[in-house]
Amino acid sequence: MIKKLYNVAVVGATGAVGQEMVKTLEQRNFPVNNLIPLASARSAGAEVEFAGDKWTVEELTPTSFANVDIALFSAGAARSKDYAPAAVESGAVVVDNSSAFRMDPEVPLVVPEVNAHAIALHKGIIANPNCSTIQMVVALKPLHDAARIKRIVVSTYQSVSGAGSQAIHELGDQTRALLNFQDYAPKKFPWQIAFNCIPHIDSFTESGYTKEELKMIHETRKIMEDDSIQVSPTTVRVPVFYGHGEAVNVEFEEPMSPEAARELLRAAPGVEVVDDPASNQYPMAITAAGKDAVYVGRIRKDESVEHGLNLWIVSDNIRKGAALNAVQIAEKLIEE
Ligand code: A2P
Question: Are residues 229 and 141 in the same domain?
């Protein structure tokens, strides 16, 4: 797809990820001719600022995609299932941030630092992975290439922005209410999120794992192109606005020292190592919020297995975990 300028639709342009997509397109000087912000009928007529202009939000309909070259979807899996085929039919390439098509064997699931080559295989839709999976594979791919990962045990500390803009407001409003000795019933989360951690993201499956946990297992294998990698996840929502943390235990086939891992990660695209415990240097949600990198620290040997490491990985779930990764895919697409 080689043109000078592209007509880019952002589906869900009023949402937490959609707004960040518009911002990221501008920050990275994506060659946009027309921006087409789409959302529900509730938002039709609202305005989105982009590149010094105001662009009017239109209601998403099957005919929204005439003359659209690239459609970035971030309005949930139901909208992706209903409207992405119409977008492809109209000639657009869809980069979909939802879970709708991620495990479809016909759809590439892409993190550009890891498997950019898969973009070329698309048949109209390219899937953007789950936020927790993206940051984990960006950090683990260079280690996997060097020493082959056998098994990953991961516990996540996921911010509320991953559940959308209503969830962001819920944490703020609920915190304020509780500090004023007022009640605030949970709406977006199954339990109170202020001053609490909830070991439940997305719905439970019969296996006892949540769908979020299953995404981390299956998407990691698909992106790393290695079905032998074992992943054992626990995903937890924490009262943080932006930035997911992950405590990751990795068992390797071959030796991998903390020093070697630090060196590989320092050279890895999209990764920043922040690892100096002596001076309290380690990544935190506040390190990553608003930034592009995947931050890695607390790198240390796991003495309980032959070749093991523990790491702490943090990234902004709305940027690298969603909007930035989608825009990076679009950038690769137009390089094709
Ligand atoms: P709207 O703001 O009009 O409801 P978030 O993940 O932050 O909750 O954002 C969800 C995004 O998806 C918003 O832009 C929202 O638009 C959009 N959206 C939700 N439902 C629909 C729908 N039925 N049709 C089109 N867009 C939708």
Answer: yes
